[in-house]
Design goal:
Layout: E1 3-9, H1 14-28, E2 32-36, H2 41-45, E3 51-56, H3 69-75, E4 84-91, H4 100-111, E5 115-116, E6 121-124, H5 132-144
Parallel strand pairs: 1-2, 1-3, 3-4, 4-5, 4-6
Helix pairs in contact: 1-5
Bound molecules: flavin mononucleotide (FMN).
């Protein structure tokens, strides 16, 4: 059984919906999972030895939503070699910086020595208007990679 903190960056609720479905799936598979809307660094630190699942959309021109910017800024100077994480990026390929928010978060964690579990999932709102139909199978597979 793994302990997973799910950290959400959203504007209109798509990423929140994906995060809540992920929590339900992970819990159903016997893991412990908690969703953090407007996540804070104190929440993040609790998962240093376990797993973080970052679920974030993109706004502006490849930017992170306001709800997750404070967390991103707070962890910016950390070194996190014990952290294992997954990332689900929501975006829209009609914009020029597709999934830029998720890609930026992933790049930061990579720089900090964290270990990504599985590939980043990129969900394109112009192809898949119901993001959970794409994320749910990904989460089920991701769950099998946790120890
Ligand atoms: C003002 C605005 C700017 C956006 N900018 C981007 C962008 O730069 N890159 C991208 O991939 N998607 C962009 N999107 C698309 C959103 O990330 C996408 O619709 C996502 O599903 C929204 O999820 P949310 O409801 O969790 O915020 C933008 C959407 C809006 C409304």
């Amino acid at each position: 059984m793994a302990d997973v903190g799910i950290f959400v960056g959203t504007m209109y609720g798509n990423a929140q919906l994906v995060a809540e479905e992920a929590q339900t799936l992970l819990t159903g598979l016997g893991h412990k999972a908690q969703v953090f809307e407007d996540p804070e660094v104190g929440d993040w630190e609790k998962y240093q030895g376990s797993y973080a699942l970052v679920v974030t959309s993109t706004t502006g021109q490849g930017d992170l939503p306001d709800s997750i910017v404070p967390l991103y800024e707070a962890i910016r100077d950390m070194y996190q070699p014990h952290l294992r994480y997954g990332i689900i990026a929501l975006g829209d390929s009609t914009y020029s910086h597709f999934c830029g928010g998720g890609k930026r978060f992933d790049a930061l964690l990579q720089e900090q020595g964290a270990q990504r579990i599985g590939e980043m999932l990129e969900i394109d709102a112009s192809e898949d208007p119901e993001p959970e139909t794409v994320s749910n199978p990904w989460v089920e597979h991701w769950a099998t990679l946790l120890s």
